[in-house]
Amino acid sequence: MSAPGSTGSILITGIGSLVTNEPALGTGPLGILHDAAVVVADGRIAWVGPADTAPDADTRHDAQGRVVIPGFVDSHAHLVFAGDRTAEFAARMAGQAYAAGGIRTTVAATRAASDAELAANLDRLVDEAARQGTTVLECKSGYGLTVDDEARALRLASAVTDEVTYLGAHVVAPEYADDPAGYVDLVTGPMLDACAPHARWVDVFCERGAFDGDQARAILTAGKKRGLVPRVHANQLRHGPGVQLAVELGAASADHCTHLDAADVAALASSDTVATLLPGAEFSTRAAYPDARRLIDAGATVALSTDCNPGSSFTTSMPFCIAIAVREMGMTPDEAVWSATAGGAAALRRTDVGRIVPGVRADLVELDAPSHVHLAYRPGVPLVRTVWRGGAAVA
Ligand SMILES: [Zn+2]
């Protein structure tokens, strides 16, 4: 019997294929075990091994031959906002080009929204992601662009995740359109003072129309001095200095990486900076996809993430991103599943998620499929059947 208030231990057995992401536990880079079982206790993985030698537990879940994978780690999302940009998407699909300035539309709606409205939208999106297998989400600010609105976004994000990112430097706030240097002073000064206590990470949209390399360096360096670790929106719409800056400053991740030259690829491959690819953005802006194959072959660590935001990638679906990565970006199904789980964990510098090994957080996803390959082989099909986060069934 388990103590009142505890979920007790769970034996998940009958697992036809278990993706552990630990090569020492099974075959191949995904460490796959067949006919496996997992025991969860106190929110952690307590045991992993062959089903016929599994210890007993308080309750039992029979996967009936299905595949179980680690929960998805979505390391790049913008979920604190109001309104949507349906009309902009439709116009783009009718031929208009995407530009960074569309962010200001969401800024106006977000500033006008109440805390309750923003929290409700955030909760809805977190639930939507969970139902699709996401158990860790990063969440950025960046639609407030005033001291109070950015701090509010980070407070709200903190209620749903530990992975909170200060993105005051998403675009220059409209009030500073004629004084971008003044806005950088705000972002590195009073806004940083208000936001640093609520965040783990600092991010910059380093792009023409947003912030150039010098501005991005100033913002990320100021964040580092306050104990925040950099991550960078880099090289999304054209080639730029973002990737080199991310590597130079020891960023956890350079995100987008769509337009890279040979030096960028080499820099990522020889650093701890993860290349986070966000194919939902290229899908939703009808742009060329990043070349994951080139990065992997060079030795870079690659993560996949949704970039969920109302303008350029309004999806919370990691399976959708996996399917695109396999079809369009040169990734094998194994690589794409690794990048959406262990890769995302690496991009957040987490070792307690992204794998199914004893001791880590019990974040698991049971798919209504015999193999993880089905995530790409059966695109658009809702395969996620059960999701455990910290040992508790959340979907
Ligand atoms: Zn983004």
Automatic annotation (TrEMBL):
Lineage: superkingdom: Bacteria
Residues given in the record as N-formimidoyl-L-glutamate binding sites: 143, 309, 311
Main localization, broad class: cytoplasm
Cofactor note: Binds 1 zinc or iron ion per subunit.
Keyword Hydrolase annotated: yes
Pathway: Amino-acid degradation; L-histidine degradation into L-glutamate; N-formimidoyl-L-glutamate from L-histidine: step 3/3
Protein keywords: Cytoplasm, Histidine metabolism, Hydrolase, Iron, Metal-binding, Zinc
Alphabetical list of Gene3D superfamilies matching this protein: Metal-dependent hydrolases (3.20.20.140), Urease, subunit C, domain 1 (2.30.40.10)
InterPro entries reported in the protein's UniProt record: Amidohydro-rel, HutI, Metal-dep_hydrolase_composite, Metal_Hydrolase
Pfam families the record matches: Amidohydro_1
Protein role: Catalyzes the hydrolytic cleavage of the carbon-nitrogen bond in imidazolone-5-propanoate to yield N-formimidoyl-L-glutamate. It is the third step in the universal histidine degradation pathway.
The protein, known as: Imidazolonepropionase
Organism annotation: Yinghuangia aomiensis
Gene: hutI
